[in-house]
């Protein structure tokens, strides 16, 4: 009889252990947003299905993917959050006015990370991303954001990314990514402020700060749609390429460094700009007097037959310049001692180069290669000179602590089942022996 109780106890213990193998969802698991094709994961957020909102509180860190239809992201006041959009799409509810699919409340601070291709569509008088006064939006990541406003039927239009039509906007910083703004309707809009034709007699706060530190930004309007943006501050560290119809003289742009193009492909280098990705010049690019363009290692500036670069400042080429068009360098200087130039036409002016078979003006010669003889002695050649393979680095050894827990669950399940079978067999024998 004692054996019976012993095996019953073992059976109960094994049954209690089985629930341990259940995998529980946590903040790293995606949850479906009911009624949509979108999913969300992260912390410090809630979904309100009554008004179709995804509400983020302080310290929220969420990732959104899929088509959320008319669900709206709202960042609470005074909240500092991180939001990752990964192939995400959302739009204003049909028939609603001034309802932005992504809205920051005052004093909020958002780090927006872009992955793959993302789309936000605002309706009449709405923004794609509303950034009110005293709030802050910073865009990072290598993805793309297509921000659109469909404003048919209204004479008032908010910024596509920024404030509404009658208010100042906050701080907008773009560090990377591909940003495209599209406006459909009367008037025009972009990044900054909006405009209202019905309220021309009222003072409009065209204030805010736009900092463009990197990425490719395509927007018709920078600053105010009223074209009176002298109180809008435009900054940049030199790594952004901007395509816009805005005249920078309309902005407080003394702190901007970068490259600005118009819709015809004509551009200006302002301040100290750095080219971090390949660029083709199909119009005319002017490097202003006192400005400089640095081409990073591994990056190519391509000037096709129809392109022209007019250099009145400095070009520092650590990468590659390929020219079948025109380089006007009479008023500037080019330092290509750490890069290469391939040119089918003569490059005049002050130029320092180290290239094979270049074309130069008669009064300019390439820097001679150092032809000093190698010292004789115990100089040890490198691996490359011997063409010896470099020993592969050891492969990372998988950390047992980070291995897939599924294997552990299967082993535990197997042991549990074996325990049950074993207990059942012994229990049956004991019953017959009683």
Biggest sheet overview: 21 strands, mixed
What's the shape?
globular
List segments where confidence is low: pLDDT < 50 over at least 5 consecutive residues: 13-25, 357-403
Rounded Rg: 31 Å
Distance between the termini: 7 Å
Helix content: 10-25%
Number of helices: 3
Q: Could you report the average pLDDT, rounded to the nearest whole number?
A: 80
The oligomerization state is single chain
Tell me the total number of β-strands: 36
- Class by SSE composition: mainly beta
Brief synopsis:
This protein is mainly beta. The chain has a domain at 268-369.
Task: Give the key terms.
434 residues; mainly beta; 21-stranded mixed beta sheet; 38% strand
Describe the fold and architecture.
- This protein is mainly beta and 434 residues long.
- It has a domain at 268-369.
- 11% of the residues lie in helices and 38% in strands.
- The protein has three helices and 36 strands.
- The protein has helices spanning 2-17, 383-386, 405-433; strands at residues 31-32, 39-48, 53-67, 72-75, 80-91, 102-104, 109-115, 117-122, 129-130, 136-141, 144-150, 156-157, 161-162, 171-174, 178-184, 191-192, 195-196, 208-212, 215-218, 222-223, 232-235, 240-243, 258-261, 267-270, 272-275, 279-280, 284-287, 292-295, 300-303, 308-311, 314-317, 320-323, 326-328, 333-336, 340-343, 350-353.
- The chain has a 21-stranded mixed beta sheet that branches. Strands 25-28-31-34-36 form a five-stranded parallel beta sheet, with no helix packed on it.
- β1 (31-32) and β2 form a beta hairpin.
- It is globular and about 90 Å long.
- The termini are close together.
- Mean pLDDT is 80; it is low at 13-25 and 357-403.
């Amino acid at each position: 009889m004692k054996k019976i109780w012993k095996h019953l106890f073992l059976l109960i213990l094994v049954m209690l252990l089985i629930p341990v193998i259940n995998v529980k969802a946590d903040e790293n698991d995606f949850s479906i947003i009911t009624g949509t094709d979108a999913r969300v994961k992260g912390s410090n957020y809630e979904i309100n299905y009554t008004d179709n909102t995804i509400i983020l509180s302080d310290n929220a860190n969420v990732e959104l993917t899929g088509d959320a239809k008319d669900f709206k992201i709202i960042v609470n006041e005074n909240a500092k959050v991180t939001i990752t959009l990964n192939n995400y799409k959302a739009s204003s509810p049909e028939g609603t006015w001034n309802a932005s699919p992504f809205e920051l409340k005052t004093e909020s601070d958002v780090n927006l990370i872009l992955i793959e291709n993302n789309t936000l569509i605002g309706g009449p008088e709405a923004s794609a991303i509303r950034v009110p006064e005293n709030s802050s939006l910073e865009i990072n990541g290598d993805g793309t954001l297509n921000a659109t406003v469909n404003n048919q039927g209204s004479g008032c239009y908010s910024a596509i990314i920024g404030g509404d039509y009658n208010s100042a906007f906050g701080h907008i910083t773009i560090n990377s990514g591909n940003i495209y703004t599209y406006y459909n309707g009367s008037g025009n809009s972009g990044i900054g402020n909006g405009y209202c034709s019905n309220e021309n007699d009222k003072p409009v706060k065209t204030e805010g700060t736009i900092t463009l530190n990197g990425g490719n930004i395509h927007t018709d309007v920078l600053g105010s749609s009223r074209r009176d943006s002298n109180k809008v501050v435009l900054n940049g560290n030199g790594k952004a390429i901007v395509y816009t119809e805005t005249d920078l003289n309309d902005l407080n742009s003394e702190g901007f460094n970068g490259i600005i193009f118009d819709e015809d492909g004509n551009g200006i280098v302002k301040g100290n700009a750095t080219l971090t990705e390949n660029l083709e010049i199909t119009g005319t690019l002017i490097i202003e007097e006192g400005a400089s363009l640095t081409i990073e290692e591994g990056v190519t500036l391509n000037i096709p037959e129809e392109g022209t670069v007019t250099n009145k400042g400095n070009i520092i080429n650590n990468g590659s310049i390929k020219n079948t068009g025109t380089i006007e360098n009479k008023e500037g200087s080019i330092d290509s001692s750490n890069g290469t130039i391939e040119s089918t036409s003569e490059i005049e002016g002050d130029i320092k180069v180290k290239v094979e078979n270049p074309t130069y003006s008669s009064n300019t010669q390439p820097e001679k290669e150092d032809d000093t003889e190698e010292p004789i002695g115990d100089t040890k050649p490198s691996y490359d000179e011997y063409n010896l393979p470099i020993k592969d680095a050891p492969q990372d050894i998988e950390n047992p602590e980070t291995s897939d827990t599924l294997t552990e669950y299967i082993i535990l399940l197997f042991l549990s089942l074996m325990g049950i079978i074993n207990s059942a067999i012994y229990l049956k024998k004991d019953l017959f022996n009683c």
